[in-house]
Design a protein that fits this description.
The structure holds 2 protein chains of 2 kinds.
Chain A (H helix, E strand, L loop, with lengths): L2 E3 L4 E5 L4 E3 L2 E3 L5 E8 L6 E7 L7 E2 L2 E6 L4 E6 L8 E9 L7 E2 L3 E6 L1
Parallel strand pairs in A: 2-12
Antiparallel strand pairs in A: 1-4, 3-9, 5-6, 5-10, 7-8, 8-9, 10-11, 10-12
Chain B lengths: L4 E3 L2 E4 L5 E6 L6 E7 L5 E8 L2 E4 L8 E4 L6 E5 L8 E8 L9 E2 L3 E5 L1
Classes of the chains: A mainly beta, B mainly beta.
């Protein structure tokens, strides 16, 4: 069964520093996708970045990058040069290619950027 | 280019009443997913629908909950005889096709409060 684990309930970072949010996953499906979403205090879910299980290179989207270590089954999100607006909940999610097309989410990490 | 739309954004119901949540997917998207988020938790999958078909309802409670995605009009999540434990944020997401690599884009959510 697919499972996502985020071990950091909360993180506090100084503005302009880089931050890494941890995510490990478990699946028996060789084909899967990994996603990160941001949920600010307003509540909406904002898609940030995607990594496919067969992708050779780590995904990047602006200040976001995904540190994908397949053998370790980890998909950490790296935010460079953090900004006050990055303060939010961050969710890691996985979707298997076989069977149900659902996203399975981790518990989330609450990131607070201090000025 | 409208995103996923959900209404109402906030819904208050008394115990025993019915709640109807609506979701209009992004233009060109025929796959709709409903998720529920309890306070301080990640999202949990409820149901996956395509036009006129329920594909996977493995996350739906067996009683009181139903979902549909008619040929015309929005997808509807219906909760009959609501109880306090149904209070949560309900998110709808859509994607153009199925597959592990397809990003699901979320609506703003409906916050249901049962008094």
């Amino acid at each position: 069964a697919q499972k996502i684990t985020q071990t950091q309930p909360g993180m506090f970072v100084q503005e302009k520093e880089a931050v890494t949010l941890d995510c490990t996953y478990d699946t028996s499906d060789p084909s899967y996708g990994l996603f990160w979403y941001k949920q600010p205090s307003s509540g909406e879910m904002i898609f940030l970045i995607y990594q496919g299980s067969y992708d050779q290179q780590n995904a990047t989207e602006g200040r976001y990058s995904l540190n994908f270590q397949k053998a370790r089954k980890s998909a950490n999100l790296v935010i460079s040069a953090s900004q006050l607006g990055d303060s939010a909940m961050y969710f890691c999610a996985m979707r298997e290619d076989q069977g149900a097309q659902k996203l399975v989410f981790g518990q989330g990490t609450r990131l607070t950027i201090n000025p | 280019n409208a995103g996923v739309m959900q209404n109402p954004r906030h819904l208050v119901r008394r115990r025993g009443q019915e709640a109807r949540l609506r979701c209009s997917p992004m233009k060109g998207h025929s796959h709709v997913y409903w998720y529920r988020q309890l306070p301080e938790e990640g999202l949990k999958f409820m149901v996956y629908l395509q036009k006129e078909n329920i594909i996977d309802e493995s996350g739906m409670p067996k009683e009181r909950f139903s979902a549909e995605f008619p040929k015309e009009g929005p997808s509807i999540l219906r909760i009959q005889q609501v109880v306090r434990g149904d209070s949560a944020a309900y998110f709808c997401a859509s994607s153009p096709t199925r597959g592990a690599e397809e990003t699901q884009y979320f609506g703003p959510g409906t916050r249901l409060l049962v008094l």
